[in-house]
Amino acid sequence: MFGYVTANWKELDKQQQTRYGAVYCGICRRILAQSGNTARLGLSYDMAFLALLLMSLYEPEEVSGSDACLLHPVKHRPWVDSPYIQYAADMNVVLAYYNFLDDWQDDGKRSAKWMAGALEKCVPSIEERYPRQCGAVRDCIGRLSELEKAGCANPDEPAGAFGAMMAQLLTVADDLWAPTLRQLGDSLGRFIYLLDAALDYDKDKRKGKYNPYLAMGTGKDWPRWEEYLVLTMGRATAAFEKLPLVQDKALLDNILYSGVWVGYRGRRKEEEPHHD
After folding, report:
1. Dihedral angle of Cα 7, 9, 10, 14, to the nearest 10 degrees
2. Is the distance from CB of 177 to CB of 57 less than 8 angstroms?
3. Residue among 103, 186, 198 nearest 155 (CA)
4. Which residues contact 265 (CB under 8 A, 6 or more apart)?
5. Which residues lie closer than 8 Å to 35 by C-beta, 6 or more apart?
6. Beta 77-81 vs 63-67: how paired, if at all?
7. H or E stretch including 63?
8. pLDDT 10s digits, 19-46
9. Dihedrals φ, ψ of 78, to 5°?
């Protein structure tokens, strides 16, 4: 259910591409340092958005450099580090752990079971550092499991559970910006859940898995789904624009106003060739 909050790479200029890549590499380096090499296999670009947002808002001191690594041993790649890069790395590991665990329990993927087992030892120390956020992730997983077992036909309920989790992940301090960050996280989480449900509709139908749109019994309905998505993303961007962001604002704009729609637009265009 991750990998959607990413940039539209083609619309980034060279400087933005370098910055985006440096934040991503910084998170990867931090995962290695904080949780080990295997944990990097769960790295997601969604966490680059989280780090960029928090660094733009709070403007911490950053450390930067350029190194080769196991994944890119020949060409040196730029990286950046900050407290929010470190935070994003921890959140990535926790989310990846529960995602792999879910894939194992739902689909019986042996690779997911192996990854969940490898990450399990990393989770307790992260929970000690961030009990509120980790508790929100567990609560979300539990609530989604209940709703799936009940065959919930109201998409707003599971989307709300995912939104509540994202609201906690985006909120790092009880300060002036916490209410706005919670609003942004809640709406963004709802968007992610509803987008994932739309894109997984055929696969879930084929495998007989829960999907809120299948539970509604209305059949495939791209226009209706898009209404849901536009509404939730509109709420997210309304909160986003209330934040006093300067650094990386254009890059964050690219992600929220363009990047999040790339996968959806591409899939809908494939299935509805005449859709503009």
Report:
1. 120
2. yes
3. 198
4. none
5. 89, 90, 93, 119, 122, 126
6. antiparallel
7. strand 63-67
8. 999 999 999 999 999 999 988 888 889 9
9. -70, 150
